[in-house]
Specification:
This protein is mainly α. The protein has one domain: Farnesyl Diphosphate Synthase. It contains 11 helices and 2 strands. The protein has a two-stranded antiparallel ribbon with strand order 1-2. Strand 1 and strand 2 form a beta hairpin. The radius of gyration is 18 Å and the shape is globular.
Length: 249
């Protein structure tokens, strides 16, 4: 499950399920379809849904049962990206112009909201395959993840706004855990394991949380470094240096 081939396979499965929901929710001729399918159609890492599916398979489950949840996680990720780009005033995302630069602030904002709404649809469809108990447990996990992610984003933005220079490594880890770890690694792994296992206890979920938190922190640290030094060709968006040079800072 860890090879590049397997990762591409998992990404392909989720991409197909995302396309299913896009095709069956919005009018293909409407401008909304073009906007909402923009970010999901761009090539991304796919690490979040892949972790969900891999965790399901690791505990002996059928990964097809986790496809809806993995799809929700990826839809919500794309919605978060749109809001991030709006807040940061970013120019590029996934080797293309950001939605806010391509269509304007108002349409980009509305598209982010639409992806949030669309992201909930697969969770309702979980009822057919997972039953009520597990489906509600997954919804609770996703809800908790969203709350932590918003809190972490708020922490970072408030630090930037007040130009905080007294932050410690513990402050950074606390922010990164909320902003990144839960929705990038912890929740995908927890939900995948919940779906795949016949039963799973609180101690098992706590072990998964500790494991996934470490991965998430490493992911965020690496991403922050790339944001400072990486080229557009390797990063798919502008680095901080490129962005500030473009603004004349």
């Amino acid at each position: 499950m860890t090879s590049d081939v397997s990762l591409e396979r998992l990404k392909s499965l989720v991409s197909s399920r995302m396309d299913y929901y896009l095709q069956n929710t919005f009018d293909h001729e409407a401008v909304s379809f073009k906007l909402i399918s923009d970010y999901p159609s761009r090539p991304g890492k796919g690490i979040r849904p892949a972790l969900c599916l891999a965790a399901c398979g690791l505990v002996g489950g059928n990964i097809s049962n986790a496809l809806n949840t993995a799809t929700t996680i990826e839809f919500l990720h794309n919605a978060f990206l749109i809001k991030d780009d709006l807040v940061d005033g970013s120019v590029y995302r996934r080797h293309d112009v950001t939605l806010n630069r391509k269509y304007g602030f108002e349409l980009a904002l509305n598209t982010g909201d639409a992806l949030n709404v669309l992201g909930m649809t697969p969770l309702f469809d979980n009822m057919k395959e997972l039953g009520v108990r597990k489906s509600l447990q997954i919804i609770r996990e996703i809800h908790g993840m969203a709350a932590k992610s918003v809190e972490g984003q708020c922490m970072e933005l408030s630090w930037i706004k007040s130009n905080r220079l007294d932050l410690t490594p513990d402050d950074y880890y606390s922010m990164a855990e909320r902003k990144t770890c839960w929705y990038t690694c912890i929740t995908p792994c927890r939900t995948g394991a919940i779906i795949g296992a016949r039963s799973i206890g609180a101690r098992d979920l706590e072990s998964i949380t500790r494991f996934a938190r470490s991965i998430g922190l490493g992911f965020q640290i690496r991403d922050d470094i790339l944001n400072l030094v990486a080229s557009f060709e390797n990063y798919g968006k502008e680095s901080t240096e490129t962005y500030e040079r473009g603004r004349g800072l």
